[in-house]
Specification:
Strand order of the largest sheet of chain B: 7-6-8-9-10-13-14
Helix content of chain A: over 70%
Distance between the termini of chain A: 46 Å
CATH topology of the largest domain in chain B: Rossmann fold
Strand content of chain A: under 5%
Largest sheet of chain A: none
Radius of gyration of chain B: 25 Å
Chains: A mainly alpha, B alpha/beta, C mainly alpha
Number of domains of chain A: 1
Distance between the termini of chain B: 76 Å
Oligomer: heterotrimer
Number of helices of chain B: 13
Number of strands of chain B: 14
Number of domains of chain B: 2
């Protein structure tokens, strides 16, 4: 595998990982299902691209900073939109929220198709790709993202979100403000998706609304499921795996989605905790695992 | 009802988030290095023995029929060329990758073709979105690409008017198609009131429409109705009823055959008898099967005349070999390949940069006309459209029509 | 005036397409309290079964109808067995059902694409003439009329079964409480089997009519998204609600297209959905159920 080719896939994994991390928080930890996250990616992509191309006030040498600001702007705008959507739909029952996210994803695409300032259906070309979405930047951003996510999950907020996923009624009874936590979870996931969109825009150098179809949202959710609901390492491993695997199995691309469908069903029926089993990598865990095996052998002999 | 006893969630809250974050990082890097070492042996094979040509396009997804036709045609041509001694005395090897209709996949496939497989040039894709996305990769590695039916002007030209050094195409562009349709409708057919039904979500449709409107109104015609729909829609009667109310002479339908079939049928069902006019998204087997009656008497702006005796040999060869009907894309792929072959021979070398230079120097006689690429915008110069009329479920050639 | 009436007819005809698709979906929701996203896939398969019955088996139209309805019914029941029952038995959280449903719908759509059937669209052999029935200046399609009638009949039939028969009583009991009904001797598994079978039958009919009116292709499931929206709009859990919501949605989409802007049609429909939900979270006619602690 040549480096040029591989670095491309790694960058793609990194971009996917951003959205997957956000979705992991929303679906894996808080238990909300969204069909429309591609819409947040789209908002982030268009915002970031506009900032890089039209709002250039920093000197040339500080371009990297400009890029980061663009990404942050993308994430922020996505987040604000998500707050509006959330405010309107999060106090509805789960199914209603799902349908609402679906409608929203499509609505965003429709608006972008029609607004000629952003190029309409013909898209926005000439987005700078040099010095923007490089492997280094992608890695840095992902590290920050993972750290932030882990911080949130390990905190009181994270535990509250898990409580909501597990048993919403009980959580409410003990005083957790369900609405507030669902909204927070949605907002953060939208921010991550927005940044991912911005990264993607600067990787392809060209964006069109049609790149953000619903099927993209579902594919990313599938990655979260593979990795395991409730596990950050699972999301990381799942993303890398599911971005590389299709490349290696190019001849079977026809069957890829068929397999995904079957796999999702099987996972839900047999092992919903996915690859990582709701756990995370840790030295203690690995040691314990080895101890357990040794203990088993001793008992057997 | 509760999950107390459910073994599924068995958390272990480890102390110290620092360790956890650190270890997540380590795991990422571990996987990273594992993959690198596993694939470390890959390297580019010796380029000297064969000339490698890459092809990308949709082998899966909605455009699969067209992508498959293209790759089949290229395969067939490569076999022929090799049987005749190859190019510059070397055998040609074709490498084909599926883009699944996705721009990011197109970028991946292109990178793989160039940096891993070592191709000297790429043919395809047929979708503008993909063709535009790969331009930065082409620039980075300095390898040329000849798009087959990508009609968005931005494929070869930047916003500021400068040409993209490594993007080429062998088809005319949307502005041209739209203008030709308008010109033919106004000047030849004498139509004055036009209605447009277009696909809001399609860049092809939007581009075609914009330029049709511009030319038609410049000539003095009137756009009496402009209605939109979204890709995936099957019901067009609301829009068509509005169009019917505006009483047009013609309806422009600049989109793909499935929606054309549905909307044409529904238009007739509503009692609309205006002339229907469309573009290169129309020609297809299924269109005829589903809507032959409805589109009787319609006009299509096409790249070539399917019934031209000069293209018959190619059609027959293709059908004999693959047992499929030849689609529009096949002809374009054929011409793209001819162009590439001529450029390689002119450059007397398989060096991508030299090939790029030669692409604007050679002239070839393709099945879609004489092809000579302009150095200003990397589009074929003076390519005329073939106006085709649909009569008794066949495409009857009317004339070659260019911009007046 | 005739323009307005024509648009009304267009709206009603679109609405009846949605209605037929959303009734089966709403039926399952009213009992199981979850959204069967695989319903779209069943509709699509129903369309293909009908198509192949007519073209390969060359059976008369009526028989094809029955074959596709029954085929789709069995498919729906099979999906329930394989995908939902294991989750139900384990009292899995609501999220799992949705994810599995999504998996099933992805599987159905793509297995058709990957199989020799392929992604190309097929058109039904013409059974009904396409010349419309003209009421003055207004065109009413024959298939539209058929769809109207069949939607109305199925709704009436379903309501009858649910309100007036013993089976219907078990169904209604199960919709209030699965555990309670089991305690009272209701064979819940059988009830669920019947629900899915009924839903599947309707899906098969819907699929075939859809194929006849438009065309057959693997992505038909995506159109059903609109009928889900219609069912939500009308109130999940209410069968009349699903039908009324669908008709209304059809009318709204058509009127928006006809009088405002066809480009922004979906956006307006979506905005409407959200506004309804904000003021009446259970939809127009939805039942208000609260989980008891």
């Amino acid at each position: 595998m040549s480096w040029g080719y591989m670095s491309g896939i790694l960058i793609l994994s990194g971009i996917n990982l951003m959205t997957v991390l956000g979705l992991s928080l929303l679906t894996g930890f808080t238990g909300l299902f969204s069909f429309g996250h591609a819409g947040f990616m789209a908002i982030g992509a268009y915002t970031a691209a506009t900032v890089t191309m039209k709002l250039n006030i920093l000197p040339e040498s500080m371009f990297w900073l400009h890029f980061y600001i663009a990404l942050a702007a993308g994430g922020l705008v996505s987040m604000i939109v998500s707050l509006i959507i959330g405010r309107l739909t999060l106090n509805l029952k789960g199914d209603y929220f799902c349908i609402a996210t679906l409608g929203f994803g499509e609505a965003i695409r429709l608006v972008l198709d029609n607004v000629q300032y952003f190029g309409g259906a013909r898209g926005l070309p000439n987005i700078p790709t040099q010095g923007t979405t490089t492997l280094t930047n992608v890695i840095i951003i992902n590290v920050i993202a993972i750290t932030a996510l882990v911080l949130i999950i390990r905190s009181r907020h994270g535990r509250n979100m898990v409580a909501i996923r597990e048993e919403e009624l009980a959580a409410q009874t003990i005083g957790i403000d369900i609405f507030k936590y669902k909204l927070t979870s949605l907002a953060i996931s939208a921010f991550y998706a927005g940044v991912a969109g911005g990264l993607m825009a600067h990787y392809l150098g060209y964006i069109q609304p049609i790149m953000f179809k619903m099927v993209k949202s579902t594919e990313l959710t599938i990655i979260v499921i593979f990795g395991g609901l409730g596990s950050v390492s699972g999301s990381v491993v799942g993303t890398v795996l599911l971005t590389f695997l299709p490349e290696l199995l190019r001849s079977f691309s026809n069957w890829r989605l068929v397999l995904y469908g079957v796999a999702v069903i099987l996972i839900m029926i047999t092992r919903p905790q996915g690859l990582m089993g709701g756990k995370e990598f840790s030295i203690k865990g690995i040691i314990r695992f080895i101890e357990k095996r040794r203990h088993k052998e001793e008992v057997n002999s | 009802m509760t999950h107390i006893c459910d073994k599924t969630y068995n958390y272990e809250f480890q102390e110290g988030f620092m360790r956890k974050k650190f270890l997540t990082l380590i795991s990422v890097l571990l996987i990273f290095t594992m993959i690198i070492t596993a694939c470390a042996n890959g390297g580019t094979k010796a380029k000297d023995e064969t000339i490698k040509i890459g092809w990308i396009g949709s082998l899966t997804g909605d455009q699969a029929v067209w992508g498959t036709c293209e790759s089949n045609t290229v395969k067939m041509l490569i076999e022929e060329v090799n049987a005749n001694g190859g190019i510059l005395g070397k055998q040609v090897e074709g490498i084909y990758y599926d883009t699944k209709g996705d721009a990011a996949e197109a970028v991946n496939a292109t990178k793989r073709l160039i940096s891993q497989d070592g191709v000297v040039a790429i043919i395809g894709p047929n979708a503008s979105g993909q063709a535009i996305s790969i331009s930065s990769v082409l620039e980075q590695y300095k390898v040329p690409d000849i798009a087959t039916v990508a009609t968005n002007p931005k494929v070869t030209v930047n916003d500021d008017g400068s040409v993209k050094a490594y993007n080429f195409r062998v088809c005319f562009i949307d502005p041209y198609q739209g203008a030709v349709a308008a010109g033919y409708a106004y000047d030849r057919l004498g139509l004055r009131n036009a209605a447009v039904l277009y696909d809001v979500a399609s860049d092809y449709s939007q581009g075609f429409t914009e330029f049709f409107e511009k030319t038609f109104t410049e000539k003095g015609g009137k756009i009496v109705a402009k209605e939109g729909f979204k890709e995936g829609d099957v019901e067009f009667k609301p829009q068509l009823s509005k169009i019917k109310d505006a009483n047009p002479d013609m309806i422009l339908m600049p989109y793909y055959y499935k929606e054309v079939a549905l909307s044409a049928n529904q238009a007739r069902e509503l009692g609309i008898d205006a002339v229907l006019i469309g573009g290169d998204g129309w020609p297809s087997e299924q269109l005829m099967t589903m809507a032959a009656d409805a589109i009787e008497g319609s006009y299509v702006v096409n790249h070539l005349d399917f019934n031209d005796p000069e293209v018959k040999p190619l059609q027959e060869k293709y059908t004999a070999k693959y047992n499929l009907a030849m689609e529009l894309n096949g002809y374009m792929a054929h011409d793209a390949f001819l162009l590439l072959q001529a450029a390689i021979e002119d450059a007397k070398s398989a060096d991508p940069v030299k090939i790029t230079e030669s692409l604007t120097k050679v002239t070839v006689q393709g099945v879609t006309g004489t092809i000579r690429i302009s150095p200003d915008d990397h589009n074929p110069i003076g390519k005329e459209a073939a106006i085709v009329k649909i009569e008794s479920a066949d495409y009857v050639f009317q004339e070659k029509y260019g911009l007046q | 005036m005739s323009y307005f009436l024509q648009q009304v007819i267009n709206g009603l005809s679109l609405g009846s397409v949605y209605a037929l698709m959303s009734v089966g979906y709403s039926l399952v929701y009213s009992i199981m309290n979850f959204s069967n996203f695989a319903h779209g896939g069943v509709i699509m398969i129903g369309a293909y079964i009908g198509y192949f019955s007519l073209t390969l088996l060359n059976v008369p139209f009526f028989i094809a109808f029955i074959i596709s309805a029954v085929g789709a019914g069995f498919l729906a029941v099979t999906i329930e067995r394989i995908v939902y029952r294991p989750l139900r038995k384990r009292n899995a959280p609501f999220l799992y059902f949705i994810i599995s449903a999504m998996g099933a719908s992805i599987f159905l759509e793509n297995i058709v694409i990957a199989s020799p059937i392929g992604p190309t669209f097929r058109s039904y052999p013409a059974i009904f003439s396409t010349t419309p029935i003209m009421l003055g200046n207004i065109a009413l399609g024959r298939i539209d009329l058929l769809m109207f009638i069949i939607s109305a009949l199925s709704l009436v039939g379903l309501m009858y079964i649910i309100e007036k028969t013993k089976i219907g009583l078990s169904i209604r009991a199960t919709s209030y409480s699965i555990k309670g009904s089991t305690l009272m001797g209701v064979n819940v598994d059988m009830v669920i089997f019947i629900i899915f079978m009924l839903g599947g039958l309707l899906a098969g009919l819907a699929g075939m009519l859809f194929g006849m009116k438009y065309t057959v292709y693997p992505q038909i499931g995506n159109i059903t998204t609109k009928s889900f929206i219609a069912a939500v709009f009308g109130g999940l859990g209410s069968l009349p609600g699903a039908v009324i919501g669908s008709i209304l949605l059809g009318l709204i989409e058509t009127m928006t297209s006809g009088y405002f802007s066809s480009q922004y049609r979906d956006l307006i429909a979506f905005a409407l959905l959200i506004s309804v939900l904000v003021f009446k979270p259970t939809g127009l006619m939805g039942k208000t159920t609260e989980d008891k602690a």
